[in-house]
Amino acid sequence: MAFKIVFGTDGWRGKIAEEYTFDNVRRCTQGFVRYLQATYSPAQVQQGVVVGGDKRFGAEDFTAAAAEVLAGNNIPVHFAGAGTPTPVISYSVVERQAIGAINITASHNPPSDNGFKVRDAHGGAIDPAGLKQIEAAIPDDISEVQRLDAASALEQGLIVSFDPKPAYIAQVHRLIDVQPIIDAGLTVVVDNMWGNGAGWLSGLLAGGTTRVIEIHAERNPIFPEMRRPEPIPPNVDAGLAAGVRYGADAVCIMDGDADRCGFGDEQGHFIDQLRVFGLLAMYFLDVRGQRGPIVKTLSTTSMLEKLGQRFDVPVYQTGVGFKYVAPKMMEVDALIGGEESGGYAFRGHVPERDGILSNLFLLDLMVRTGLKPTQLLERLFGLVGGPHYYDRIDTRLASNEFKVESQARLDAAQPPFVGGLKVTGKVTTDGYKFELEDGGWLLVRFSGTEPLIRVYCETTHGDKVAAILADGMKLAGLEANV
Questions:
Q1: Going from the N-terminus, what domains does the chain have, and what CATH number goes with each?
Q2: Which of 148, 177, 301, 356 has the fewest CB atoms nearer than 10 Å to its CB?
Q3: Cα gap 265→247, rounded to integer Å
Q4: Hey, is 16 helix, strand or coil?
Q5: Mean pLDDT for the stretch of residues 77-106
Q6: Distance CA 295, CA 39 (A)
């Protein structure tokens, strides 16, 4: 029986050579082909599909495998190749008027994994209904896959390589004036996490008094000095230490495929991704004076609701993943959208996370206000009624049986208090979110990309974070480890 390919929060991911094989990538691509043929007219299908990927093991060969299946189905391929940032692949869909993209990346997963992401004609994540259609269309047998070898496809013009960099850079310059950052005399450390972001920020900010120092800029699919290329502690520790070593004004961090943003302050401390979302919203609303809806997943900061009230803009909450965020952003013409994992998207761009642009906006926030990151946080807290504290515990699932048992426990859970704070509501849109009296929350959720259960919280009481997480672990039937 063929391996069952299931799309999670953002595409399909698996262990290289075990689940993630060339044949399974080809099967996945054939499923995407069938979806495209059922969704678009034959003339639209001829607009083609962008194919790119990250710098993980075998990336060149896996991207070529996907391109060969598209070509074998007579679908033109705009081939960006391996080493292309996810936001650049997404923008290329719009720039080249393609009908979608295949992105070979496992994003922030461990080095043993690779993945398969798909994007729509807007460059954004395909909605859950579309992903289900693709899943259902994946053939059970490799014999059903149509394929044309790359050399023949290149000769026939069905695969055409292109450089996506110039068009993306031109788009960045339309969205932000980088010259003030170039001339600001900042020292910025950029941690590329051995991934696709290498060279992009340093290139965009070259030629002035601002100094950009890159680390982890070489290709290394083992991802030394970190467990995985995910821009959260402890993976960011080496980058933050480099910030201290070089006396940096800020540390800009991107994950392996450069769609997520991490940020460190002038003291070498990590600014968690919920606070970064708050800073970016403050940048657009309070500093640039723009207005528009905010879209957030239920796993991110309640500071956004407070900013929404203060600046009279609506805030929409979705399930976890850009497959929910992207469609909502387009529906309401959102100013900004984002999630707890450090992925943020912006109006006037593609509805896709962009770690390059996010870091540039944060640097622009520093330049426009003349404030250091620690001072910017003080300004944000002044707008939302004080500091908000966040933390998360990830636990690997022991078995599917445990997952079923844990879900049953959480379905039945009606705790009056969590971490000593009164529970005011329970939301089960995506996982189990317990709303707390201070406007904070506890969320217990099973990952859509890995066999993990995540326990998250945010609160205005810094001394209660550990207790809230401990109660969340107990509700899920896990041994507390905080």
A1: 12-167 (3.40.120.10), 176-384 (3.40.120.10), 389-475 (3.30.310.50)
A2: 177
A3: 11
A4: strand
A5: 98
A6: 27
